[in-house]
């Protein structure tokens, strides 16, 4: 593969990876913004609920206190006070039940808002319509969905999705009070492509509503009983506060309660508990700071849950007025803030972050793996090119020799000389054998790669085999002026394997020592037993190798570069063959080498038990 192609592939893959990262960043930022908005709405709703409960609690508490005092002052009004107590109790129960009913509605509202945020075309349908048309398959075709365009004040139209029936059939009344929605799906041309039914819990709790109705009925009955005395709960509170009984109820209560200092009207423990409860109902359980202000002075600055938190300047604060029912401006303000708001929202987004990070790591891993494969294939391609060049050099010499010898045999004068003919025939034969050996080595490598090479499993005396290979190499060693030193000291030398391939292993190692020799070559060959293994060491004082070459010598086709001089014969297959054969015969090979100092190979084979 050309360098320009590789650069183009890397550029395109990098661009795609950057695009994926940008899309993920945009999605996370948008999700964070939505989560932050929902968080703000939930906190504000909790503050509003707490302020309302505090105001209602104050009214009830103040009325109870005034009621007790009124009972003590006049025994004659005990009957009226009992009526008042009952009314207050009923009123308290009604308010508590209304609060619970409001919580049910708020939970429903949150789910409804999430549904409408997810699907733009959501239509609420009545339960009788669902029972009459949608639930019964034979009447589903009567359901009609239309988009109605209504002109606005400007030049635009407002589109509304209307669900109706094309034919009126006897109505089937609703069987439950669940809230049902049709999710309408349109294509880009506003054509209907599908619809889904989504069911939410009821907007209200019928049991709570029924209980409130019963309590209100009872309260109205008590109020009518007190009407003959021209007396009700708010009149009593106004009278006990020193006001006239005919003041309107809100003014009377507001003026009486507003007389008290703000710090006397609040119970800090109750405020904290109410805040915790309201936030927990909205699934917010993180620590927060609370502040209570009276006009411009701070009355309370407390840290909940003993969390050592500070308020940064840019922290979002949430505030609500206290006792808004008082006459005039509200006397106080309740403020809370979350110094670790970002961490809270990030925790809520954990289910999004983990898959996205996993996908990102997968993409980066695939990108890196692809680059590794590309460079590895480029390296293999270069090595194969070198292999072809080496093979050309190795085959060229014997072919040229055979060609010259063959042409010589055509000469009549040479044909008449029997000795010269015999000599040329021997040269042709030797060169053919040489070519055959080269071919066999390449074929053996192919068999190794295809796992088709069959190895014998027989007892082999390694000491004898190494000695025989050394004897066969003596002539080559003498020709270059070198020598072997043999010390086969292993007492246990029987291994299980293929004798032919074992001999090829040691031949290749000794052949490399001779090929890459310098000056006075000295090769030490030894064997010894270590544990259940026999270790055969072949050490030379040749040219050695650098650390970079040492890591690659077992790769196929790899040869230590010698420049443009082709003075070292071979294909770069010998050590690859050695390592593969030893691996198949449960052995292994190690190598140590220093540049210009020599190389040491150790062949480790398991002894037959």
Automatic annotation (TrEMBL):
Catalytic activity, as annotated: ATP + protein L-histidine = ADP + protein N-phospho-L-histidine
Task: Tell me the ranges covered by the Histidine kinase domain, including all copies.
Answer: 390-609
TM region(s), chain numbering: 6-28, 351-375
What keywords sit in the KW lines? Answer: ATP-binding, Cell membrane, Coiled coil, Kinase, Membrane, Nucleotide-binding, Phosphoprotein, Transferase, Transmembrane, Transmembrane helix, Two-component regulatory system
Q: Which SMART domains match?
A: HATPase_c, HisKA
Q: What class of enzyme is it?
A: transferase
Q: Which residues form a coiled coil?
A: 64-107
What is the annotated localization of this protein? Cell membrane
**Enzyme Commission designation:** 2.7.13.3
One cellular component term from this protein's GO annotations in UniProt:
plasma membrane
InterPro entries of this UniProt entry?
HATPase_C_sf, HATPase_dom, His_kinase_dom, HisK_dim/P_dom, HisK_dim/P_sf, Sensor_HK_Regulatory, Sig_transdc_His_kin-like_C
Report the protein name in the record.
histidine kinase
The record lists the organism as Sphingobacterium puteale
């Amino acid at each position: 593969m050309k360098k320009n192609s590789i650069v183009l592939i890397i550029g395109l893959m990098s661009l795609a990876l950057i695009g994926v990262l940008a899309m993920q960043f945009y999605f996370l930022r948008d999700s964070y913004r939505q989560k932050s908005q929902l968080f703000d709405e939930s906190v504000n709703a909790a503050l509003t609920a707490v302020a309302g409960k505090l105001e209602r609690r104050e009214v009830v508490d103040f009325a109870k206190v005034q009621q007790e005092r009124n009972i003590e002052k006049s025994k004659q009004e005990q009957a009226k006070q009992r009526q008042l107590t009952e009314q207050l109790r009923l009123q308290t129960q009604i308010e508590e039940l209304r609060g619970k009913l409001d919580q049910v509605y708020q939970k429903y509202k949150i789910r409804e808002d999430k549904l409408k945020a997810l699907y733009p075309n959501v239509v609420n349908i009545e339960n009788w319509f669902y029972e009459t048309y949608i639930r019964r398959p034979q009447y589903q075709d009567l359901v009609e969905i239309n988009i109605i365009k209504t002109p606005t004040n400007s030049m635009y139209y407002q589109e509304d999705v209307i669900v109706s029936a094309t034919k009126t059939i006897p109505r089937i009344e609703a069987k439950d009070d669940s809230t049902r929605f049709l999710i309408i799906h349109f294509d880009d041309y506003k054509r209907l492509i599908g619809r889904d039914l989504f069911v939410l819990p009821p907007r209200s709790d019928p049991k709570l509503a029924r209980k409130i109705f019963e309590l209100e009925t009872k309260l109205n009955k008590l109020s009518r009983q007190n009407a003959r005395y021209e007396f009700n709960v708010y009149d009593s509170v106004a009278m006990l506060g020193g006001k006239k009984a005919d003041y309107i109820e809100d003014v009377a209560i507001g003026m009486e309660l507003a007389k008290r200092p703000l710090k006397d009207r609040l119970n800090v423990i109750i405020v904290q508990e109410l805040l915790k409860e309201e936030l927990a109902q909205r699934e917010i359980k993180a620590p927060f700071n609370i502040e209570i202000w009276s006009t411009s002075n701070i009355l309370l600055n407390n840290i909940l849950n003993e969390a050592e938190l500070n308020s940064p300047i840019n922290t979002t604060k949430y505030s609500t007025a206290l006792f808004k029912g008082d006459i005039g401006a509200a006397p106080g303000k309740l403020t809370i803030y979350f110094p670790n708001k970002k961490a809270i929202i990030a925790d809520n987004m954990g289910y999004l972050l983990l898959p996205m990070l996993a996908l990102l790591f997968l993409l980066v891993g695939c990108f890196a793996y692809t680059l590794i494969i590309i460079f590895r294939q480029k390296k293999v391609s270069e090595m194969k090119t070198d292999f072809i060049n080496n093979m050309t050099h190795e085959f060229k010499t014997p072919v040229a020799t055979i060609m010259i010898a063959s042409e010589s045999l055509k000469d009549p004068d040479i044909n008449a000389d029997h000795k010269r003919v015999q000599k040329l025939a021997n040269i042709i034969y030797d060169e053919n054998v040489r070519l055959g050996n080269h071919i066999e080595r390449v074929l053996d490598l192919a068999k190794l790669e295809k796992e088709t090479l069959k190895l014998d499993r027989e007892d082999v005396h390694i000491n004898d085999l190494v000695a025989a290979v050394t004897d066969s190499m003596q002539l080559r060693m003498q020709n270059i002026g070198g020598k072997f030193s043999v010390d086969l000291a292993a007492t246990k030398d029987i291994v299980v394997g293929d004798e032919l391939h074992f001999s090829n292993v040691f031949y290749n190692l000794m052949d490399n020592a001779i090929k890459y020799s310098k000056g006075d070559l000295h090769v030490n060959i030894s064997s010894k037993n270590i544990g259940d293994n026999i270790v055969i060491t072949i050490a030379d004082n040749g040219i050695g190798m650098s650390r970079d070459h040492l890591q690659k010598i077992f790769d196929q086709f790899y040869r230590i570069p010698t420049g443009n001089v082709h003075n070292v014969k071979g294909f770069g297959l010998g050590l690859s063959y050695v390592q593969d054969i030893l691996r198949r015969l449960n052995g292994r090979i190690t190598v140590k080498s220093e540049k210009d100092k020599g190389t040491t190979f150790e062949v480790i084979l398991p002894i037959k038990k």
